[in-house]
């Protein structure tokens, strides 16, 4: 058996995207034991970096080992007790995911929906909050399936006013769009590395407000074999061991209570992703995503293609393009991949085969990536005008 030798690709889909070489380099470093003082200091550094990424003072800011979905499950299973009311405003596939995970946590789940391609008005969310009186409101910021980015400041304010815990999935949006954990009053937010953070999937940064942390710690049941006399079982036990944030907080905190074995290589990668972002400056990184997103938008329009959804509320880092009548969307994607080494995506459910999703995020939010992709699209579609339109944005 020969060693894996992956082909060179330019990943211009909705994520994963081509990883920043600095992240890959960080991930090639040797392991250190999980309780080595160097390692615990690296864990503390990682927490401090992600406080900057999430724009929060939350002490409880760390990594859940696993893909972004692991962060979502950890947040919801640790917050929700069976029978709790959870409200999920759904505007795409990942809203449905939040509802389905909440159901598995045996919550009484209520959803409200807008058509794919739209976002919620705050009044509609407040009316549902009044009606349902949920313990938790769970919402996605940027739903990759539709490319829409839900404004959250008003929803945070509504949740505070009605004493509702607010959970947000920022996987697709953080780093490329404004995101304010504390200013918007979010209780838990989770993310992933494989979009605007320029890393691979496999680590889910999370931040937890003091009031959410108190609520979770009020359900702490430390597992047998590592508990001591100070541990008393309180509250309803969290239904997952791996995603039991009460125990995971003790692993990342001063107690360093053994739980899982930290995924050291992923931590190296996550640390470098955050360092890249903080070095660049969050506002500069968001402006970079806005610029290259705008260039890609101009480029696809220059090619004569229609853009799906409410463009005013589109995430900066991904665009959904209507596949023109008579064009075989899968053939175009296959030719881009086979002939040019460029990957773009389609979408899910009602949008499967109806749109292409093209990302400009993380390491690929740069002009060469945008222009190369548009050039290849011109050749595959036999149309012009894409590169020139993007170049006008850069002029
Ligand atoms: C908004 C959003 N949430 C959650 C996920 C799930 O992430 P993962 O595949 O890393 O578990 C994705 C992946 O595309 C996403 O875009």
From TrEMBL:
Pfam families: Aminotran_5. GO terms for molecular function: transaminase activity. Residues 39-345 form the Aminotransferase class V domain. Its cofactor is pyridoxal 5'-phosphate. InterPro entries: Aminotrans_V_dom, PyrdxlP-dep_Trfase, PyrdxlP-dep_Trfase_major, PyrdxlP-dep_Trfase_small, SP_NH2Trfase/AEP_transaminase. Belongs to the class-V pyridoxal-phosphate-dependent aminotransferase family. This is Alanine--glyoxylate aminotransferase family protein. It comes from Nocardioides caricicola.
